Amino acid sequence: MLLEDYGLIGDMQSAALVGRDGSVDWLCLPRFDAPSCFTALLGEARNGRWLLAPAGGGRATARRYRPGTLVLESEYETPDGAVRVTDFMPPRLQGPPRLMRIVEGLRGRVPMRMELTLRPDYGSIRPWVELAVDGAIATAGPDAFRLSTPLPLTVEDGTASADFVVVEGARERLTLTWHLSYEQTPPVEDADSALARTKEWWREWSGRCTYDGAYRDEVLTSLVALKAMASETTGALIAAPTTSLPEEIGGVRNWDYRYCWLRDSVLALEALLDSGYTAEAIAFRDFLLRVGTGDPRQIQIMYGIGGERRLTEFELPHLPGYEGSSPVRVGNAASEQFQLDVYGEVAAVVYIGAELIGRVERRLWPRWRAIVDHVTGIWREPDDGIWESRGPRRRYTYSKVMAWVVFDRAVRIAEQFELDAPLDRWRAERDEIHREVCERGWDPERRTFTQYYGSRALDASVLNIPLVGFLPGDDERVTGTIDAVAKELGRDGFVSRYSTAETDDGLPGDEGQFLACSFWLAAALAHNGRVAEARALFERVAGLANDLGLLAEEYDVARRRQVGNFPQAFSHLTLIVAAQAITAAEARAAVAAAPA
């Protein structure tokens, strides 16, 4: 099944993917990064899924989210009638995780089929399944699942199933609850009341959106997707709720994205703040405080949802992978890399947090100062770069730009809040980095910033130069870089991160066009005053979203389909960044055009 065929549901602590065929093919419980209990996405039906669809099969003819929510409705037309399936995961409110499905007859008489195949630990374990008074219970080691439904069930080969008929006006309700097998089974919540409170929760949240600029519908959809990927308990934002969805069909560039990248989180924080969501910003700042240590050398580029540091990478050979794309990986070895830009992300969080609350806690300032002082000693070193290259370390231009951000934001904070700091030294470091980047990261022949010092290769990350304030958006060097990246990294109008043919990233094969980079280009164009071009590109990239408005990591131009982990926070947050940049550019143009 294509990635475009999936919808996302979640409860801000875990998430599921629901296909057009009525099958829940991916679900990790009780956390985003827990072993999956439905893993058909990376294998087959026998690796776990929950099917609920017309008995004759088929695909949903219409799907939608209830406005402003993550409540998914799918309608199925058959020769005998029509039904609607509503899928959702209610906010937990201190309770257990639940996935609820409601079938409603719209017209006629529709035979339905339900198959619940639970396979914990990434599809590797067949649990013990037995019938209960109100459904069925499945147990495997620490995991227990309770299916609550009035439907008569049968159990065979570890699968609970039911055949039933839905007539017009009738409703059938099914609730799947997870709990620890050695604890009491939690009470069952009525599905209709859970649906009502879930819709109310999401509508209240989305109703607080203050964004009123260009492409508001697309921005709100992206905000809801980002909220769904932000842990309600820890404040961490995951990059995606999936692992090992390939960047190239059949290739090996398959990574586990169910972790918190500081880079993604900072960008998301900015997008959420600009849309009126301050609670999420504070929650992530607090997450950062918890994962930080007394030694700035130990800051990582990513963490587990609870702040875990060990994200050991290993493979699951029993799974064939999405469309045969193997290996399937759990964990991420990139967590052990040295990426200089992460210190810039941390500095950005500190700066945003200080502006948000109007102060810097005095007890925390020595902690932030230690980070700035540490960067003083390391910014000249080569690093692994923003894209987690598994090739040689380089002096990446974007990494140096983000080192500049460290000193720039530190100076601003210290000046604004009159904090004790070696301002002369920090300003000198800031100015030295700026000069070096403009000299060594600049290719005067092609008039563009390059991937790393002395390189002729390009990298889309340098499109951020105007976005972080390193140079004005209308600077001729920004203009040259925009044009060079669009020309040399563009493919059918979409932008790659870099050329895999020219960059030694330590991996075989190719990858799709990175959607975040295309949105970066749209934002850079807006900063450059080329608003019509920015709008045209934005609409083309946003138009790749599926019918529910969801975007994966990349787009395969040759196959004309989305690839990579899905949905991808980076794609949605850069959509918001680009929309905001277009809105700001149009406002500037309107002011400039107004009569004196």
TrEMBL record:
<comment type="similarity">
    <text>Belongs to the glycosyl hydrolase 15 family.</text>
</comment>
<dbReference type="GO" id="GO:0005993">
    <property type="term" value="P:trehalose catabolic process"/>
</dbReference>
<keyword id="KW-0378">Hydrolase</keyword>
<dbReference type="Pfam" id="PF19291">
    <property type="entry name" value="TREH_N"/>
</dbReference>
<comment type="pathway">
    <text>Glycan degradation; trehalose degradation; D-glucose from alpha,alpha-trehalose: step 1/1.</text>
</comment>
<dbReference type="Pfam" id="PF00723">
    <property type="entry name" value="Glyco_hydro_15"/>
</dbReference>
<dbReference type="InterPro" id="IPR011613">
    <property type="entry name" value="GH15-like"/>
</dbReference>
<keyword id="KW-0326">Glycosidase</keyword>
<dbReference type="GO" id="GO:0004555">
    <property type="term" value="F:alpha,alpha-trehalase activity"/>
</dbReference>
<dbReference type="InterPro" id="IPR008928">
    <property type="entry name" value="6-hairpin_glycosidase_sf"/>
</dbReference>
<protein>
    <recommendedName>
        <fullName>Trehalase</fullName>
        <ecNumber>3.2.1.28</ecNumber>
    </recommendedName>
</protein>
<feature type="domain" description="Trehalase-like N-terminal">
    <location>
        <begin position="4"/>
        <end position="150"/>
    </location>
</feature>
<dbReference type="InterPro" id="IPR012341">
    <property type="entry name" value="6hp_glycosidase-like_sf"/>
</dbReference>
<feature type="domain" description="GH15-like">
    <location>
        <begin position="214"/>
        <end position="579"/>
    </location>
</feature>
<keyword id="KW-0119">Carbohydrate metabolism</keyword>
<dbReference type="InterPro" id="IPR045582">
    <property type="entry name" value="Trehalase-like_N"/>
</dbReference>
